[in-house]
Design goal:
The complex is a heterodimer. Chain A is an alpha+beta fold. Chain A has 15 helices and 25 strands. In chain A, strands 1, 2, 3, 4, 5, 6, 15, 16 and 17 form a nine-stranded mixed sheet that branches. In chain A, strands 7-8-9-10-11-12-13-14 form an eight-stranded mixed sheet. In chain A, a hairpin with a 6-residue loop joins β8 and β9. In chain A, α6 packs across α7. Chain A is globular and about 75 Å long. In chain B, about 35% of the residues lie in helices and about 20% in strands. The radius of gyration of chain B is 29 Å and the shape is globular. The termini of chain B are far apart. Classes of the chains: A alpha+beta, B alpha/beta. The interface between A and B is large, with 51 and 53 residues.
Chain lengths: ~550, ~475
């Protein structure tokens, strides 16, 4: 009983301080900032050893060697810090929460698959499904990333992208570009009707583009003279595709290997699309002459995995691992050498810190640091046509600025402050705050039951690495993953962000572990809290 | 940088064994003193083949080559035309069947080639130099196929056999009617007559489509320009089938359905080029000859499903003896490497002559694919696609030692084993180097290691009471 009371008190205090304690970044609502005496990387290759950055109302007002600091500015002592433009993740889907698809088995017999099930969903907008949580944003900030292009990646017409500034959870304000890019994938889903093969996908795209051309011709002829001509049928799908087909907006081909890149170039040039290539397979270096000839920018992923179609994957483990150690990480270096334009994508490395770590491996394999930085900033901004607003530390640009101890892309450097849209985030060392060493290992599955009116049941799957905790909550409705939980002594703390009826809710879980049982509190943000008990599933 | 280069070299050695071992800079090659199977006539014992560029220049005895020529001594080994497999599905990425629709003439294998399929190399190791890789047999009218030269190490467009006519795959019987499907959606047609009716239906559709375009073409210069018909990529191909633009390769087993489809094709003026499998073809040789269609079949592979029961290993020879154009195919990446042994079976079972047996994997499939102008025999002027065997290719103990495509060596058994040995040695060296480094590391770490170990039990002790509370 005593223990329970203690726990309750502990949880209460935890609950009270939670909102500020759980996140490693604190944001401050102040609109004018002056960072003085810092080293400024205006853009890769242009460095001011000691200068001042003035940020006002979300924009950079000044960045240069000397200026009188405005009276209304809050001053940040920047000596010992390096300022550089916030990194841009040019293609990611880690913050995208798409609704779980339910398969209707009867469709296997009827064959009545919807367009969406067949992977034809140009109407899906990343904007509608992007899940900007504080915890999620914070993860990017730790690696110095302040903008991310989010795009659905399943199917043939995968959906439309949005570019977000990682400044706030409100999408309305955070969005920089909406519906600016259409994804085109080559992977057919295996049991969902036409097309269900790669050759079918290519044929489908050709027919679709032929139909679009006809739609445009027919519509314009009818609009030109409505007399004597049947009017065209309205097609919502075509209306979504039109700006991308006519070259008003860009498309991005999701290429799983070198062959897909060739296919993309062929289709892109044949139909005169304005297109990008996302090198999911990491094989751009194998088709450099074709890429150079096309002049198409590439969004490089950093998974360094040899695709199964490649010759390296078919000759046994030795050849494969050798190629994955030596050849695939040198992808970026080879493209730099050849002068192919590229930006970086976190697509195959969902954790932002791994993404940056792998860029450093690419640097070890010969990519110049300057080019790596360019690819993460100016070049990425240029690919999406937002280089007037992002990518460098220059007056008039969006105040997405990172201040770190040490220069960017060094293993020992640490991000100290992040500005996104002029909002300041302090990156605190989390582990230093929480003293106690873990005395328990909670890795494994736990069956959790909440008490009281709601009486929910769910499974927690935990993975403990020293004092940090990650895992997922499994309910009958689906799974929600989390990272950045902590274990301190025999107590665990974690935050799970879920999507409930279109709203994102942060669930805080605090528990005390006793052998194979756990008890504690679950707080559903503004929706109240409940106590829970649980036991380990052997 | 140097180290990096070395590593690249390492990988390239590993891969070299499977990439083109092109004889660089040698425009002239003389294969000397071999037993040459020309296919066109009698074998030449102790003969030479002179290759200039990608073509065979001369075949005979005591041929003299220029001073710069590369001379390969065959020492009595057997040289034959590169083997041609007219029914294959290798080097295709992302599925060989588009099952999402009944009729899928719009899909094209050419769009989805993967030139790095390892099976290409394995095929070369069996003396195969040309293949026809194609859509599967899921649909009455499937997709278009492509003839490839196995120029291993080149890109897919570079492998395409220039000048080879385009082909389209059809299929009859159990596969398109999905008789072996225990689950999945029930699809029309479910009977053999349904399969044929579905082909007739799309022919009619294609005729309407052609007519719509003809009508439009007549009126398009009128004052009031009509709306053009919508472009339909599927019907475009079917229309081209009706116009005779494609070589039609029709998968079929039973005699009755072969007879029936030939009748339908006559009605629409379509010419079938080849029946694939055609296991019951021996029952209708007169009709096959009269129609003028080839059969690309198996040597002794049957009874794997109901429609494949009513045959025997003598079938291919029986058809060939009656004058039907017969080819033996693999339909399989593994069988592909030993087509020469399949050819030998036609002698064992059906009593074909050696020459007739070898034709079933050389000139006959070349004729079926419309590439016999360039390949299929060893003759001056033809492509230098040559397979070299240690014994007669129909000898049960034979194996392929070297394969050339367009006068370039793409498979060399001796060199392949040498490269493999080299790669293994390098791997061993590296492992030993790593071991030595690890040992060194361990030694240098040992002392601080021991120091660290001491406080360990203590910390365990301090933790123990806590956990037990």
């Amino acid at each position: 009983m005593k223990r329970r009371q203690f726990c309750f008190l502990l949880l209460l205090t935890l609950f009270l301080i939670l909102p500020s304690a759980v996140f490693s970044a604190d944001e401050t609502l102040h609109s004018v900032w002056a960072v003085k005496d810092c080293k400024i990387v205006i853009q890769p290759g242009r460095v001011i050893e000691k200068g001042v950055i003035i940020i006002r109302n979300g924009l950079i007002e000044y960045a240069g060697p000397v200026v009188s600091i405005p009276a209304d500015a809050e001053v940040i002592e920047g000596s010992g810090l390096t300022a550089y433009a916030g990194f841009i993740d040019a293609f990611g889907d880690s913050i995208l929460k798409m609704p779980e698809e339910k398969r209707d088995p009867s469709k296997m017999y009827s064959g009545d698959f919807s367009e969406k099930e067949r992977g034809i969903a140009p109407e899906i907008k990343a904007y509608d499904y992007a899940n900007l949580t504080k915890a999620g944003i914070s993860k990017f900030h730790k690696s110095g990333i302040t903008a991310v292009l989010v795009i659905p990646s399943k199917g043939i017409f995968t959906g439309q992208a949005s570019l977000f500034s990682l400044s706030q959870t409100g999408k309305e304000k955070a969005v920089i570009l909406k519906d600016n890019l259409l994804g085109i994938g080559f992977s057919a889903s295996s049991v969902t009707g036409y097309p269900d093969s790669l050759m079918g996908v290519i044929a489908f795209l050709k027919q679709e583009f032929a139909d679009l051309a006809y739609y445009i011709m027919h519509t314009s002829r009818w609009e030109n003279d409505m007399n004597g001509i049947s009017r065209p049928e309205y097609k919502a799908e075509f209306e979504e595709l039109l700006p991308f087909f006519t070259g008003k907006k860009q498309v991005v081909f999701l290429c799983r290997n070198q062959n897909d890149i060739i296919r993309a170039i062929k289709i892109g040039s044949e139909y005169k699309l304005k297109y990008l290539i996302c090198d999911i397979g990491g094989e751009a270096f194998r088709v450099i002459p074709e890429l150079k000839k096309s002049g198409v920018p590439v969004l490089l992923t950093l998974g360094f995995k040899s695709p199964s179609t490649s010759i390296y994957s078919q000759q046994g483990k030795d050849v494969r691992s050798e190629a994955e150690r030596e050849l695939y990480p040198s992808n970026a270096a080879r493209l730099e050498e050849a002068g192919v334009k590229f930006a970086f994508s976190s697509y195959s490395t969902p954790e932002p810190d791994k993404f940056l770590g792998n860029i450093m491996i690419a640097v070890e394999k010969g990519l110049s640091t300057e080019k790596a930085l360019r690819a993460l900033t100016v070049d990425a901004a240029a690919v999406f046509g937002v280089d007037r607003a992002l990518g460098t530390i220059e007056a008039g640009k969006i105040a997405n600025v990172v201040l770190s101890v040490g220069d960017p892309l060094l293993k020992e450097s640490k991000v100290k402050y992040v500005f996104a849209d002029g909002i300041k985030f302090d990156m605190k060392e989390k582990k230093a705050e929480e003293g106690e060493k873990p005395t328990v290992n909670v890795s494994g599955k736990w069956e959790i039951t909440t008490e009281g009116g709601m009486g929910m049941k769910f499974t927690l799957e935990l993975t403990q690495e020293e004092a940090t905790l990650s895992g997922k909550r499994i309910t009958q409705f689906g799974q929600d993953e989390f990272t950045d939980g902590t274990v301190s002594g025999n107590e665990i703390n974690l935050t799970i962000t879920i999507n409930a009826m279109g709203r994102t809710v942060d669930i805080y879980v605090s528990g005390t572990v006793e052998g194979d049982t756990i008890s504690g509190t679950i707080s559903f943000g503004a929706m109240g809290s409940a106590e829970f008990t649980g036991k380990r599933i052997p | 940088m140097k180290q990096k280069r070395f590593k690249y070299l390492l990988i390239s050695i590993l891969v070299l064994s499977v990439s083109a071992i092109a004889v660089a800079g040698k425009d002239e090659i003389l294969l000397k003193n071999g037993n040459i199977i020309t296919i066109t006539g009698a074998d030449i014992k102790g003969g030479d083949i002179l290759i200039k560029g990608s073509k065979i220049e001369k075949i005979g005895k005591n041929i003299k080559a220029g001073p710069d020529a590369l001379v390969i001594h065959l020492n009595g080994k057997w040289a034959m035309p590169g083997i041609i497999d007219s029914h294959s599905h290798i080097a295709v990425e992302g599925g060989v069947n588009e099952t999402g629709n009944l009729m899928t003439a719009e899909v094209d294998v050419k769009d989805v080639l993967n030139s790095e399929d390892y099976n290409i190399f394995l095929a070369l190791a069996g003396g195969v130099t040309t293949i026809h890789t194609m859509h599967g047999s899921a649909n009455p009218i499937g997709g278009r196929g492509i003839v490839l030269k196995l120029r291993w190490g080149s890109t897919a467009p570079e492998m395409i056999f220039k000048g080879a006519p385009e082909t389209v795959k059809w299929a009859l019987g159990e596969n398109p009617k999905q008789s072996s499907f225990s689950m999945g959606r029930g699809r029309y047609p479910k009977t053999r007559m349904g399969v044929e009716a579905s082909i007739r239906a799309i022919f009619e559709e294609a005729r309407d489509y052609m007519k719509a375009w003809d009508d439009y073409d007549k009126k398009k210069d009128n004052k009031v320009k009509p709306l053009p018909p919508k472009k339909d990529l599927r019907l475009e191909v079917i229309a081209d089938v009706l116009r005779g633009k494609y070589l039609v390769r029709c998968h079929a087993y039973e005699a009755e359905e072969m007879l029936s489809i030939m009748k339908l094709c006559k009605e629409y003026g379509v010419k079938l080029a080849v029946f694939e499998h055609g296991l019951e073809g021996y029952r209708i040789t007169n009709e096959l000859i009269k129609y003028g269609v080839g059969v690309s079949t198996f040597a002794d592979f049957w009874a794997y499903k109901w429609e494949a029961f009513k045959t025997m290993p003598h079938s291919a020879a029986l058809m060939a003896k009656r004058g039907v154009l017969i080819a033996l195919n693999s339909d399989d990446a593994e069988r592909m490497r030993r087509l020469y042994l399949d050819a030998a079976k036609t002698i064992r079972f059906g009593g074909l002559s050696e020459s007739e047996a070898l034709k079933t994997i050389t000139i006959n499939p070349a004729k079926m694919l419309g590439v016999d102008k360039w390949v299929g025999t060893l003759e001056p002027g033809k492509d230098a696609d040559i397979a070299i065997f240690n014994r007669h290719p129909l000898d049960p103990y034979t194996f392929c030692e070297m394969t050339m495509v367009d006068g370039k060596v793409f498979f060399d058994r001796a060199k392949y084993f040498e490269d493999r040995k080299k790669a293994e040695e390098i791997k061993k060296q590296k492992e030993e180097q790593k071991k030595a480094e690890d040992m060194k590391k361990k030694e240098s770490e040992r002392k601080p290691d021991e120091n660290q170990k001491k406080p360990d039990p203590k910390s365990m002790e301090t933790q123990a009471p806590k956990g037990g509370n």
